[in-house]
Amino acid sequence: MALVKNPDEEFGSTLVGAARAFTYLLLMFLLWIAQFTYRWLKPESTIYVIQCFYRTVLFVMGFRIRVHGAISQVRPTFFVSNHTSYLDVPILGSVIPASFVAKAEVRGWPIIGMLCARQRTVFIERRATRIADQRNELREHLDKGESLILFPEGTSSDGLAALPFKSSFFSTVEGTHTQVQPVSIICAELDGMPITRAFRMLYAWVGDMDFAPHLWKVFKRGHLTVDIVFHAPVDPKAFPDRKVLAAYCQQQVAHGIEQSLAGRGISTADKPALPVPAKMIGA
User: Fold this and answer.
1) pTM confidence score
2) Are 222 and 191 in contact (CB under 8 A)?
3) What confidence score (pLDDT) does residue 223 get?
4) Distance in angstroms (rounded) separating the CA atoms of residues 93 and 151
5) How confident is the model over 136-165, as a mean pLDDT?
6) Which of 121, 169, 212, 227 could bridge 186 with an S-S bond, Cβ 3.0-4.6 Å?
7) In the Cβ-directed half-sphere of 54, how many Cα atoms lie within 13 Å?
8) 273 pLDDT exceeds 50?
9) Residues 160-189: what's their mean pLDDT?
10) DSSP three-state, residue 123
11) DSSP H or E segment with residue 81
12) Is the separation of the CB atoms in 4 and 11 below 8 Å?
């Protein structure tokens, strides 16, 4: 598919978009039936049902997912990732069997809110007066052995760099043996070619962009390749406090983004120039 010079112009195939949209709605209906059935027969397996749903949807939509590094197999693990788009949810959800932590407003969003609810998402309010209660709620999930995925930037970006990580919810794992694994997610290619800054908004969802028109462009466009980089998990007790832990994770994630966008290959053994804690899991 030839690229247009201006990404705001008509892009992609309307026929392909309609076919993908129809298939997506059909898969949503099948997901509802499957989850209703599993909720009664095997309630502990519902997260794997939606994981299968995500993988199927991404295949239908033409996404190619490249995984670098090893995902933590220890439960629970607290996964922390940069955030570029609502598309991060199905992409990360397709490879990580865990529940998301999302802001409370997401619960009311069309389609996304329903999917998040079905994946047992923990909805939080980013208010200082609610931090303690919500930290306890997150810890309850971890105490049950349930892994969580957090976007600690607190907002989405264009994906060219990692924003500073807010440290508030890192207090959830302070003093525990819960593994924390930094994860970088990068939209790297469009139709097999490195994606340019101009076309990055075909993936990124930022500012006051409307959901439906953006999703329609996603349905119509070509094939996007997304890199997921799993960095070495760490033990929170190796860090003096949550702020240092958050800063370390942010820099690991930023390093993964930089490697992917540089196009020189990704090595999870490479580390940015940081003081590395002596007590690293798997190091």
Assistant:
1) 0.82
2) yes
3) 85
4) 13
5) 89
6) 227
7) 25
8) no
9) 92
10) strand
11) strand 77-81
12) yes
